[in-house]
Design a protein that fits this description.
It is a single chain. The N terminus is likely disordered. Strands 15-16-17-14-13-18-19 form a seven-stranded mixed beta sheet, with helices on both faces. The chain has a six-stranded mixed beta sheet with strand order 10-9-8-11-12-20, sandwiched between helices. It has 15 helices and 21 strands. The longest helix is centred in the first third of the chain and has 21 residues. By secondary structure, the chain is of the alpha/beta class. 52% of the residues are buried. Bound molecules: NADPH dihydro-nicotinamide-adenine-dinucleotide phosphate.
Length: 496
């Protein structure tokens, strides 16, 4: 493959207490370009000691520093400045995201713009935080005021490193909290770049800290630390359970954004071509490494054969390659180990008797030899009991199931421990809304799949999580609620 990609190995530092530092014990981690397996960068490998320092800095900045007493306008201005700096560095950020994570450039560009939007949205919202006034009983006046929760530990996965950083940091800073963010050990580069931008924008020392390190040790310390008031986690459901247990020590406030096995339902009366496009995009955007991926495609029996054939006809348009290559629509998976896991699930699908109708293997050719590529894969005739219908694969693997009527579609869609996202395709709007109302999922789409907005809440039902991010809901997750009661009588109570 020929791309204009040239990577040079760069050494990064992490942001703790307003300074860019190495790990205390000198530990480092090599970061690879998943499309070539080449060394891309070297980052500090934070351990528990580094996280402790970051948490102490965030604690001090919250308890003694000016941040939570800074005016909402000033907090908003900082967020707008960070948004501006993201836009000014958009090209470099997008290319770095591609090199580190593997996604196609067009998707990374979208993520970068969305990250800037997120800082701007919460920059505006900083000045809209307000309480309530009540007057019960008549001789008293009562207020409800909203205050920042405190020190926030934030742990994010590898599939949207910059965007997830923005989703976490922006509402926390807008509300007056201080932050320690830990990106995935596989993809820390854009979060560390963002740390530079936040520092340049004028974030005071300790208010925002970014530590690069593994879940084991660094992540665990953040989840367990008694100095952390709130933990916001995005990642797998199994890790979410561990985090919840670790956070119980000091009963941290907890938001969890976890996995999904999301149904995408196509009725026979859908706009056929739009639904075919939508089904492929739902499954294969970002290599299928998306928590909300439409990885379970439920198609009405009468059109299923034609629908699968139409999808197969479009598969050759999904050009694989380095995400910076021209026209590339699908990059490599994030790591060799992750590709192994996805391949094991493909084997499980074949073993259980699903019909592999495309993909299933690694693409051939010298340009793919060193990267962690996998072909877009579709299984037809999948049964609801099969592992590929039940477990999150988090890769480019689509499972197609059929249903005979609306009731069966709803039953199959809800037959999962997850409840993150769901899509419905039909030109009968009554039916579409009726079905959406029955689906046990937090993010739903009619005649589209994937678009999401900073203004709208993001999060899941059932084992897909706890709480909501983004929108007005997202800032609530960083605020405490305090009642203040004022006695208007001047006479003593006279109780005793
Ligand atoms: P993981 O759950 O493996 O990891 C997520 C983060 O948690 C990483 O930073 C990881 O660090 C860290 N971590 C791992 N173990 C621990 C621990 N014991 N204590 C503290 N931190 C820990 O998820 P992936 O990174 O593999 O991401 C994929 C998952 O994320 C999928 O299940 C996907 O559905 C989910 N996800 C959910 C989203 C949502 O909004 N609901 C959005 C995006 C992804 P390290 O990487 O260094 O091990």
């Amino acid at each position: 493959m020929k791309t204009s990609v040239k990577s040079s190995v760069k050494t990064y530092e992490m942001l703790i207490n307003g300074k860019f530092v190495k790990a205390r014990n000198g530990g480092v981690r090599d970061i690879l370009d998943p499309a070539s397996g080449e060394l891309l960068a070297v980052v500090p490998e934070a351990g528990r000691a580094d996280v402790k320092l970051a948490v102490e800095a965030a604690r001090k900045a919250f308890d003694e520093g000016p941040w939570r007493k800074t005016t909402a306008q000033d907090r908003g201005k900082l967020l707008f400045k960070i948004g501006d700096l993201i836009r000014a560095n958009a090209k470099a950020l997008a290319e770095l995201e591609v090199r580190n994570m593997g996604k196609p450039l067009a998707e990374a560009e979208y993520d970068v713009a969305d990250a800037a939007n997120c800082f701007e949205f919460y920059g505006g919202l900083a000045t809209k935080i307000h309480g309530e006034t009540m007057s019960v009983p008549a001789n008293s006046m009562s207020f409800v005021v909203r205050e920042p929760i405190g020190v926030c530990g934030q742990i994010i996965p590898w599939n949207y490193p910059l965007l997830m950083s923005a989703w976490k940091i922006a509402p926390a800073l807008a509300s007056g909290c201080t932050v320690v963010l830990k990106p995935s050990e596989l993809t820390p580069l854009t979060a560390l770049f963002l740390a530079r931008l936040m520092h340049e924008a004028g974030a005071p020392a300790g208010v925002v800290n970014v530590v690069s390190g593994p879940g084991a040790g660094a992540g665990e310390e953040l989840a367990e630390s008694p100095l952390v008031d709130k933990l916001a986690f995005t990642g797998g459901t199994a890790t979410g359970r561990k985090i919840a247990l670790a956070a119980v020590g000091n009963l941290k406030k907890l938001t969890l954004e976890l996995g999904g096995k999301n149904p995408n339902i196509v009725f026979a009366d859908a706009d056929f071509d739009s639904a075919v496009d939508g089904a492929l995009f739902a499954a294969f955007a970002n290599q299928g490494e998306v928590c909300s991926a439409g990885s379970r495609l439920l198609v009405e029996k009468s059109i299923k054969k034609r629908f699968v054939a139409a999808m197969l006809a479009k598969i050759p348009r999904i050009k694989l390659g380095h995400g910076l290559g021209a026209g590339v629509k699908m990059g490599p998976l994030v790591s060799a180990a992750h590709r192994d896991k996805v391949e094991a699930m493909i084997k499980a699908g074949v073993h259980e008797g699903a019909k592999l109708v495309c993909g299933g293997g690694r693409p051939k050719g010298a340009e793919f030899a060193k990267g962690f590529f996998l072909e877009p894969t579709i299984f037809d005739e999948v049964k609801p009991t099969m592992r590929i219908a039940r477990e999150e694969i988090f890769g480019p693997v689509l499972s197609v199931l059929e249903f005979k009527d609306e009731a069966e579609a709803i039953r199959l869609a809800n037959d999962t421990e997850y409840g993150l996202a769901a899509g419905v395709w039909t030109l009968n709007v009554n039916k579409g809304i009726r079905v959406l109302k029955e689906l046990r999922a937090g993010i739903t789409w009619l005649n589209t799949y994937h678009p999401t907005f900073n203004e709208m809440p993001w999060g899941g039902y059932k084992q897909s999580g706890n709480g909501r991010e983004l929108g007005l809901y997202g800032i609530q997750a960083y605020l405490e609620t305090k009642q203040i009661n004022i006695n208007l009588d001047e006479a003593p109570l006279g109780w005793y």
